[in-house]
């Protein structure tokens, strides 16, 4: 069966462009509008172009984590799966591991799944995680959902050097709780 062209695939690229600017990110993160929550729901799309657009938009919005962390975490039931599932690998997690996760993560990680084949999406997801956990409250939230274990399992199967570098940057922050300026993700927003 051939997939029909999705007339809305281009919307992902438009959202990435909107999120390049601080004003666009603030608009997308405004909790009264609920836009980012709606965008995150598109992460399950079968369209690789749409998934890449959502991933880039989420990454760009995480540049606001310092000032709008609570807005990001207020939609954590959508945010964490969108940024953790692409980097969780394809292994089935143990009951012990999933018992420490919220349902939206534990149910997805308790079954066999296809690995995310786009390394750009995996790097964007790791960049988003990095920017969130730069904040103390973000780091606590990440630990509370067993985030470090998810990344550990995903890292074990990773083969792409750029993705491995992004895992290691996040891992260093998780372990040391601090950062050096050289470790920051690029301030360039996604294309």
Automatic annotation (TrEMBL):
Domain Protein HGH1 N-terminal, residue spans: 6-122
Range of residues in the leader sequence: none
InterPro entries: ARM-type_fold, Hgh1, Protein_HGH1_C, Protein_HGH1_N
Domain Protein HGH1 C-terminal residues, every copy: 128-176
Transmembrane segments: none
Coiled coil: none
One Pfam family linked to the record: DUF384
Similarity section: Belongs to the HGH1 family.
Cross-referenced PANTHER family: PROTEIN HGH1 HOMOLOG
Protein name listed in UniProt: Protein HGH1 homolog
Taxonomic source organism: Rhizophora mucronata
Lineage: Eukaryota, Viridiplantae, Streptophyta, Embryophyta, Tracheophyta
């Amino acid at each position: 069966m051939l997939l029909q062209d999705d007339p809305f695939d281009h919307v992902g690229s438009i959202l990435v462009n909107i999120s390049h600017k601080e004003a666009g990110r603030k608009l997308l993160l405004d909790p009264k509008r609920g836009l980012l929550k709606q965008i995150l729901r598109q992460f399950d799309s079968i369209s690789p172009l749409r998934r890449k657009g959502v991933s880039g938009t989420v990454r760009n919005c995480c540049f606001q984590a310092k000032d709008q962390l609570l807005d990001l975490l207020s939609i954590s039931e959508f945010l964490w799966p969108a940024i953790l599932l692409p980097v969780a690998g394809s292994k089935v997690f143990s009951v012990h591991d999933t018992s420490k996760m919220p349902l939206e993560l534990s149910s997805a990680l308790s079954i066999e799944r296809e690995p995310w084949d786009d390394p750009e999406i995996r790097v964007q997801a790791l960049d988003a995680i990095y920017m969130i956990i730069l904040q103390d409250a973000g780091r606590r939230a990440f630990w509370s959902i067993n985030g470090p274990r998810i990344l550990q399992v995903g890292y074990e199967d990773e083969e792409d050097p750029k993705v491995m570098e992004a895992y290691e940057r996040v891992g260093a922050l998780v372990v040391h709780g601090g950062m050096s300026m050289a470790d920051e993700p690029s301030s360039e927003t996604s294309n």
